[in-house]
Amino acid sequence: MLHTVNKSPFASATLSACIEHITPGAALLLIEDGVTGAVAGTPAADLLAAILGRCPVYVLQPDLAARGLREARLLPGVELVDYAGFVRLVVAHEAVQAWL
């Protein structure tokens, strides 16, 4: 399953709720304001670091750029994807769970 989170972890508990439900074989894609959760040195990044060993974490690069954030600020191990990469992730997973 591909999980997508679009809410900032600084304004919503959506990311932490999602992480509680991630199972082996799943992937997490942060989009829209959710991309702020992958910024290194934050409590949200600590949550992501805990799951990086068991599931890949992706950030939508255009959303990161739209918020004035750079790749260099991301938690190590988080991968950037463009819109085509987003589509490939959707196709590669049996289901998509959008956490709103």
Which helices and strands, and how do they pair?
Blueprint: E1 2-5, H1 14-21, E2 27-30, H2 43-51, E3 57-60, H3 61-66, E4 79-81, H4 83-92, E5 96-99
Parallel strand pairs: 1-2, 1-5, 2-3, 3-4
Task: Explain how this protein is built.
The chain is globular. The chain has 4 helices and 5 strands; from the N terminus they run βαβαβαβαβ. It has helices at 14-21, 43-51, 61-66, 83-92, and strands spanning 2-5, 27-30, 57-60, 79-81, 96-99. It has a single domain (2-99), classed as 3-Layer(aba) Sandwich (Hypothetical Protein Ychn, Chain: A).
The average pLDDT value, as a whole number, equals 95
Low-pLDDT residue intervals, each spanning 5 or more residues: none
Strand order of the largest sheet: 4-3-2-1-5
Indicate the CATH class. Alpha Beta
Proportion of β residues? Answer: 15-25%
Radius of gyration, taken over Cα atoms and rounded to an integer in Å: 12 Å
What class do helices, strands and sheet pairing give? alpha/beta
Gross morphology = globular
Count structural domains.
1
CATH architecture identity: 3-Layer(aba) Sandwich
Give the count of helical stretches: 4
Share of residues in helices: 25-40%
Summarize the structure.
With 100 residues, this protein is an alpha/beta fold. Helices cover 33% and strands 19% of the residues.
What labels describe this entry?
4 helices, 100 residues, Hypothetical Protein Ychn, Chain: A, globular, alpha/beta
